[in-house]
Amino acid sequence: MGFKETREKQRCFATLSYAAKSWKKRERKVDVKAEFTIKADNTRYVVTNLKGSAKWLYDRCYCMRGDMENR
Fold it and tell me: Cα(44)–Cα(58) distance, rounded to whole angstroms?
C-alpha cells in the first residue's frame, strides 16, 4: 500500500546508472531515495562508487555523514 492509502510515511529506494555529458562517457551509480509524507515529497540522489544497497548506503553512510558535518 502507498502513502495515499495509508497516510503513513513511505520510503522507496532504487539504484540506476547515469552519465552526464561532462563525465567523459562514463556511467556512474546513482542511488535514489524517494520519501512521501503529509508535509511534502522528498527525493534525494547520491552519485557514488560505494558498494551496497541504496537503502543501506543512504541510511548508514550518507545520513550519518551529513549529521556529523552538521555538528
Answer: 9
pLDDT digits (tens, 9 = 90+) for 54-68: 999 999 888 887 777
Report the phi/psi class of residue 3: left, alpha or beta, with left for phi > 0 and alpha for psi in -120 to 50. Answer: alpha
- Indicate the number of domains in the chain: 1
Is 16 within 8 Å of 34 (Cβ atoms)? no
Angle at 34 between CA 22 and CA 52, to 5 degrees: 70
Identify the domain containing residue 37 by its residue range.
3-70
Cell numbers placing 58 = 543512504
Average pLDDT over residues 47-55: 93
